[in-house]
User: What shape does this take?
Amino acid sequence: MIRNGATGRAALRDGRGGAHAKDPRTTTFLARRMPRPVGFWLLAVTLLAILAASAAPSPLYVVYQHRWNFSPATLTTIFAVYVVALLVALLIVGGLSDFIGRRPVLAAALVVEAASMVVFLTADGVGPLLVARTLQGLATGAAVGAIGAGLLDLEPSPRSPLGPLLNSVAPAAGLAAGALGTGALVEYAPAPTVLVFALFAALFVLLAAAVAFLPEPVTPRPGALASLRPRVAVPSGARREFLAATPSLVATWAMGGLYLALGPSVVAGVLHIGSHLVGGLVVTALFGAGAIASLLVRDLAPRRVTAAGSLVLAVGTGLTLLALVGPSTPLFFIGTAVAGAGFGSSFLGSFRSLAVLAGPTERAELFASVYILSYLALSVPAVVAGLEVPSYGLRTTTTVYGVVAIVLALLAALAGALRGTAVSPSTVVASSEGLAADGPERVVSGRDVMEAGLAESASSGMDTRGR
Assistant: This one.
């Protein structure tokens, strides 16, 4: 989800807002902007809020299903339409902020996000839920690109790890917080299908107003319309690595989709726990563990992290399936947390392994392919599972789903072990000559890879449409 333009970085280095600094009136206006550190943390809070809101409906699916008596297939369709809309936004407007600026794209996305919350809180059937999730997906896809780039534009220093770290950890952390907060409100607060969305709507309106004072690192330039043309491909030099990473990407995000779409239903229907808070805790356990694991392994060699994370994912998934036999609620949560640790570390390792394999004109295509594959894995298997639940039951469908995820995770672990953990010097040169100069035998850590890719994207203007 990382995106950055050369013009934006140049403006930051200039310290005065680039070409706008030549106009005294504009200089006076820019002086009213919030300081860069404040802007950085505003973007971080905004990213967490948007991703938390994306997980907020998950604990409510059981409530909606009971209220309107729709099938598991309909439930997973409501979930999947969000992913489709998000992909469309990533591919079409994901690069727009490099041409017209971060502020207008982010402000528009937040207004649409607030509108989706209003549709949620007034929903009286499946149709409005589909509309709300579509609007939310479009807003999220548009916002994450501008925010990801802005976190790099406004990071405290050029080599600060905060920008890339937040881009890596915020998705899992936001999903975990959103599921937990919504579960608590649904369980203990009045008007469970209204209050959470009213709070989010108010928050997004406030954030949209605050964005007006955000420092703008990008000087508007021609090419905005051309940037709306979707383009996705895997560069030839990254195809073998992409193919090797595919089982890991599919296994991790397929498990994420299962928990987001059916996790609370499994808690209610298989574990026989009626608490909505516990339903939210299931999603929180998976993604919270993923965020923590990402922090812990961020300095390790990415291929090693992918292999180990895939193995941990397989073990955790196996524990959750074993818990469903009992059923055993404690074992289910332990397995979910273990699977979440594998989820976070495996995806982070796969992403960083691929990030160094494309040059500046190829990276957007590669990242688009990575996220398209990931979001398709998040949605399509979950929808298929929802279609099969009426015929085979929730327990059997979840078990088959989990077994497939285990097989893919084990294939990913085997592929990672066979490929080794070292990144060749020639590969690193494509991203950062400084890292290659450290010696031909150097094993590049996760942070080295991250900084190499960011250093090049900052200097050349990385186009990550569909990140």
